[in-house]
Amino acid sequence: SGRQIFQPLHTLRAAEKELLPGFHQFEWQPALKNVSTSCNIGIINGLSGWMSSLDDSPADTITRRFRYDVALVAALKDLEEDIMDGLRESGMEDSACTSGFSVMIKECCDGMGDVSEKHGGGPVVPEKAVRFSFTVMSVSLQAEDEQEEVTIFREPKPNSELSCKPLCLMFVDESDHETLTAVLGPIVAERNAMKESRLILSVGGLLRSFRFHFRGTGYDEKMVRDMEGLEASGSTYVCTLCDSSRAEAAQNMVLHSITRNHDENLDRYEIWRTNPFSESVDELRDRVKGVSAKPFMEMQPTLDALHCDIGNATEFYKIFQDEIGEVYKKVNPSREERRSWRAALDKQLRKKMK
């Protein structure tokens, strides 16, 4: 191309900086509590924000991360064109729309299995890794004179690894609740700070304000249990959303209501910790229903796999009855008719499923 490839170091540095997440100028109103005000931040030591180091492993090798707000700014700047297109398509007058943006963030966190060094002489670190990441699911706008929120950007491939931005990588075994919560602690602190504040960022040449909503829907069951301080999946308490034990779940395959919430789990953890009624271990476990560690991030009570399966089973059970009775030919079948279809289905199920 005839351009000189070998640039002097300082221009390369400048170019590199612009490619690093967090080069964009931004501001929080009110300023974030417990978070430094520097905008120009690249990859930081994941333990920054913690005074003491963790034992056993050299602390400076355990984790690397971006600062959460800086990473969100970078993600929004990546979507700048999409946001502007969305504004144009929805006929929003551009200069009028500077506030009222809300951004939905899906958070994911999962273990990465065995990442051990096979022949190396590197630092002694745990041989498992965990990756915490997020996806910008949607950006919507509540205009001042409008009732409805208008979605101006929706992630077309929300489950693709291409839309999933890494935030933190750590050498931690995901079953090690204590270390995991210690490493994710600063992230949670930043996340909580951001909920109370709004981001002022230049998008499309105008300063606009954004509020963030976080949903931890990208965790698998193991991680949800970990975050919620529940016993692991082999526990008598099968479910992450209700208190049914294995025996109860086997007896009653249909009616399981969602009963858990985060505050309740915190209360239970306190009971587990203090044992106010001086009960034996078994009685205490039965009282707290498998909450044995401190819940760590609030989880929206979305459906877990168990309740989802139960819901599907109930739905199919009804559909099969309707099929047996050829309900599409009839108008308002009587209760007796319905009962006979159900009896036929139950008989068939018992025969087939023993």
From TrEMBL:
Pfam families: RAG1_DNA-bd (PF26024), RAG1_pre-RNase_H (PF26025), RAG1_RNase_H (PF26100), RAG1_ZnC2 (PF26101), RAG1_ZnH2 (PF26104). Residues 27-99 form the V(D)J recombination-activating protein 1 pre-RNase H domain. GO terms for biological process: adaptive immune response; B cell differentiation; chromatin organization; T cell differentiation in thymus; V(D)J recombination. Residues 237-298 form the V(D)J recombination-activating protein 1 ZnC2 domain. Residues 103-235 form the V(D)J recombination-activating protein 1 RNase H domain. Residues 1-26 form the V(D)J recombination-activating protein 1 DNA-binding domain. It comes from the Eukaryota. Residues 301-354 form the V(D)J recombination-activating protein 1 ZnH2 domain. GO terms for molecular function: double-stranded DNA endonuclease activity; histone binding; protein homodimerization activity; sequence-specific DNA binding; ubiquitin protein ligase activity; zinc ion binding. One of its GO terms (cellular component) is DNA recombinase complex. This is Recombination activating protein 1. It comes from Labidesthes sicculus (brook silverside). The lineage of its organism: Eukaryota, Metazoa, Chordata, Craniata, Vertebrata.
